[in-house]
């Protein structure tokens, strides 16, 4: 959905934001549906546990980048989340090579939902969207802190 989002976002002028938001929501819905189906039918795999959050991060970063390019959101929001997500990706690759996977948890999922709501509010022109975006950035750092704690506990246990 990422290439479709970018194409639509930049190709439809003033309506690109609304159409892009619809694509973003569809991507989010299919992501939730995919996870539900995988758990319900016991189709959860190690690769899925790794690739699903990676796809979520890439979609979110793409949307934030596009919104910042059009000056809908401040560019620093994209930079901050990009640094956070890239550090999580690098850590995830490190752990994956050590045969350890940290699955997503409540904090990461809550942060993602907050970003979806904030981006939708921005797309619809609600002034609260900016505040929600800042709350989403803050929640992303709560999630990062939580994952860092899990990472270091895991690393310490492997050393013992």
Can you give a write-up of this model?
By secondary structure, the protein is mainly α. It has a single domain (1-157), classed as Four Helix Bundle (Hemerythrin (Met), subunit A) (Up-down Bundle). 82% of the residues lie in helices and 0% in strands. The protein is built from 6 helices and no strands. It has helices spanning 2-11, 16-40, 46-69, 75-97, 106-123, 128-159. Helix 1 packs antiparallel against helix 2 and helix 1 (2-11) runs parallel beside helix 3. The radius of gyration is 16 Å and the shape is globular. The model has no long low-confidence stretch (mean pLDDT 89).
Question: What secondary-structure arrangement, pairings included, does this model have?
Answer:
Elements: H1 2-11, H2 16-40, H3 46-69, H4 75-97, H5 106-123, H6 128-159
């Amino acid at each position: 959905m990422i290439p479709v989002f970018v194409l639509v976002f930049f190709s439809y002028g003033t309506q690109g934001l609304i159409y892009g938001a619809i694509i973003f929501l569809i991507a989010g819905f299919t992501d939730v549906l995919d996870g539900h189906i995988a758990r319900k039918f016991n189709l959860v795999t190690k690769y899925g546990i790794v690739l699903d959050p990676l796809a979520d991060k890439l979609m979110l970063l793409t949307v934030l980048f596009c919104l910042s390019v059009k000056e809908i959101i401040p560019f620093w929001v994209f930079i901050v989340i990009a640094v956070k997500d890239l550090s999580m990706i690098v850590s995830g690759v490190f752990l994956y090579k050590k045969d350890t996977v940290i699955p997503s948890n409540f904090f990461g999922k809550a942060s993602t939902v907050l970003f979806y709501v904030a981006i939708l509010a921005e797309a619809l022109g609600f002034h609260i969207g900016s505040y929600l975006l800042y709350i989403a950035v803050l929640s992303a750092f709560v999630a990062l802190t939580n994952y860092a704690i899990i990472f270091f506990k895991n690393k310490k246990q492997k050393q013992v």
